[in-house]
Amino acid sequence: MNKRYTLPTFETAQLPVVPAATRKNNYERGIAPGDLVYITEGEKKGTVTSVFHYNPSNDAVLVANVTEKRITPKTTWVENQNSHYVDYPSYLPMSKVKLAGKDKDDEGKVSYVVADEIVLKDKYYDDRYKRWLPKRFVKHHSSIEIPWPNPPSAFEDDALSTQEPTVFEKTYELQTIAKAPVPKAALNQLRNPYSKHKKRVLSELQARRLNSPEMPLSVEQKIYLAKQASKPKKTYTNLSEEIKDFIGDKMAQHINSIDNPAMLAHLEALSRAKVPDFEKTIQNIEDESK
Question: Which InterPro entries does the record associate with it (predicted)?
Answer without folding.
Answer: Rib_uL2_dom2, Translation_prot_SH3-like_sf
